[in-house]
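USER: My hope is that you can spare some time for a protein that puzzles me. I am handing you a single protein, as its sequence and its fold in C-alpha cell form. Walk me, if you will, through where the backbone shape changes along the chain. The protein I mean follows directly.
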Amino acid sequence: MNSAVIRAEPPASASGGVANPWMIAMLVALASFMEVLDTTIANVALPYIAGGMGVSQDEASWVVTTYLVSNAIILTASSFLARTLGRKTFFLICLGAFTLSSLLCGFAPNLNALLLCRMLQGFGGGGMVPVAQSILADSFPPAKRGQAFAVFGVAVVVAPVVGPTLGGWLSDNISWHWCFLINVPVGVIAMALIALLLQESPTARAQAQQQGDGFDVVGFVLVATFLGALEVVLDRGLEDDWFGSRFIVIFTAICILAFMLMIPWELSRRHPIIDLHMVATRQFGACFLVMLSTGAILLATTQFLPQLVQQDFGYTATWAGLVLSPGGVVTMMMMFVVGRLAAKVQPKYLIAAGAVVCALSMYAMTNVYADIGFWFLARSRMLLGVGLPLIFVPIMAASYDGIQPSKTDQASALINAARNTGGSIGVSIVSNVLTHREQFHQSRLVEQVLPSNPQYQDTLQQVTSFFAGHGSSLAQAHDQAIQWIGQQVQTQASYLAYMDAFWVLMLISLAAVPLAMMLRTIKLGGAVHVGH
C-alpha cells in the first residue's frame, strides 16, 4: 500500500479570495436544501395533486417516484460531468435545470407533463448534492471540514423534515402548485450569488486536465438501469401486488440482469462510472451501508409519521407536518454541536452513539396508542433529531478518509445514492409491514368480535345505549354501535401495525452500530491521509 500525506488547500481555493468560504458553504447548502426538500414536499400534497388533475392518488404517487428515479440515475454520472465541465459550471447547470423544471412543474397542465418536469427536476437536483460536498471539501482545511459539513448537513437532514410541514401548509392554504413554485425565486438568487462568488478550485481544474478519461457509457447505462428498475420495484411493488404483477416481475428481472452485468464490467474498466473496488473497502463500504440505513430511517419516518397522524388522529396536512418541526429545530442545533465534536471524537463512536439514539426514538414510538398527544410525537421526533446528526456529520468525514482527491466526487455521489436508495428501501419495507401486519392484527381482533363473546355483547349493549341516549332509535343505535365497534377494530389494527413498523425501524437503526465499529481510527484535524 502506498500512502501519502496531502495538505488541504487554503480556504480561499473555492472562493478565489473574493468570498469568505463560509459564504460559499451557505450558498451550496441552500441549493442542496431545495433539492432535498423536493424529495418530501410533495408527499402530503399528493391528495391535492390527484384531485386537481383528476387522477387517482395511486397515479399521483408517480410524482414522487419519477423524481427519485431520475435523481438516483444522474448521481452516477455526476463525478464525470463535474470533472469534465468543472464543478462550478456543472453546479450552475444543475441548479438552473432544477429551477426551470420547478417552474414548469408548477404550471404543468396534466399528470404526464408534471411527471416529465419532475424527471427533469430530479436530473438537475441529483447532481447538486455530491458536487456541493466536493466544493466544501475544497474550500475548507481538514480541521474545519467537520463544521463545514455540519452546515451542509443542516440542509440534507432538516430539508426532509421541513418538506411535509411546508408542503402541507401550502396545500391547505394556497395551492399544491406552490410546492414547486417556491423553488424558483430561491433558485434564481442562489444562481446569481454562486456565479458571482464561487471560483473553480485550481486543484480540481488540474485534475480534470490530467485525467482526460472518457465516459463509461456502458457502465452508466447498466448502473442507471439497475438503480432505476430498483426504484420502480420498491416504489410500485406494494400497489401492484409484488410478484403477482407482470410489470413488477419484468422490472425485477431487468434490475437483476443489469446488476449482474454491471459488476464484471465495472471491475474490468480502468475508469469505471462506479469504483466497486472503493465500495468493497472496509472503510468506505461500512460508511455506504450505514448511510443506507440512515436514509431508510430518515425518509421512512418522514413519510409515515405524518400519514399516521392524518389517518388515525385526524390531523390536517399542516399539523401533520408540524409534528416534525421540533425535531427539525433540534437537528439544526445538533449539527453545529456535532460539527465541533467531529474534530475531537472518532467518527465510529459518534456514529454508533447516533444509531443507538435513533433506535431509542423508534422504541419510544412503539408505544403509539389512541390517547397520545402532539408533544409525545414531537418529543420522539426530537430524540431522532439528536441521533441523526451524530451519524450524518461524522460519516461524511469517515467516508473521505483514504480516498484519493481525484475520487472525492465519486465518493460523494455514492454516499448520496446510498441515502436515496436506502430511503426507498426503508419506505418500501415500512409500507409492506403496515399493510401485512394491519391485515394480520385485524384478523386476530375480529376473532374476538363474536356474538358468543360476553365482552362483545356487553360492549355492544353499552354503545347502543349511548347512541340511543343521544336521540337515535333503538334500531339505529344498534347499527351505529356495530359500525363503531368495526371502526375501533380497524383503528386498533392500524396502531398495532405502526408499532410493528417502528420495531423494524429500531432494528435497522441498531444494525448500524456494528457497522460503525468496523470503521478504522482516523486522524482528526491536520492532514488528510490518502492511500491506495
In short: Residues 19-213 form a domain with the Growth Hormone; Chain: A; fold (CATH 1.20.1250.20). Residues 1-18, 526-532 have pLDDT under 50 and may be disordered. Strands lie at 3-6, 528-531.
